[in-house]
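Predict structure. Chain length: 139.
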Amino acid sequence: MGECFSKADPLGAALEETGWELFEAIRKLTDERQQEAEKICDTIVQALQSDEHVIPLALAFQAARSQAITLLTESHSGDAAPTENAVVKGKRIVNQRGRDNLDISTARDLLVRLEQELRSGQTIRLNMRWVIEEGESEQ
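Prediction complete.
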């Protein structure tokens, strides 16, 4: 009981600071990102329905936020990328996407997620570019 009371404030803060607008935005996606958006929303629902000992709410929200930001900031120009299952240099491409304007934390989260999703017999090749900025932000 004491443990429940000690976690009440952090859990309340996690619920208040979640940024529900972000999840509302991805729920409205109707393009090729819709399926991934649904998975992210399902993760949030599962975290809300689960015991804190099974799925820590704050960590689930943090991971879902990162995934949602990545999903919204990804580059998805269908003309430039080979179609799914295309063959390039003797290898079949099963997934290809791009992400733009990521901060270092989101980029790190993306790399971890890519590594976790990698299946046996698959490899990942990355193209990287970056911008390091200094000074006040333009508004």
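Summary: Residues 94 and 119 are 11 Å apart (CA to CA).
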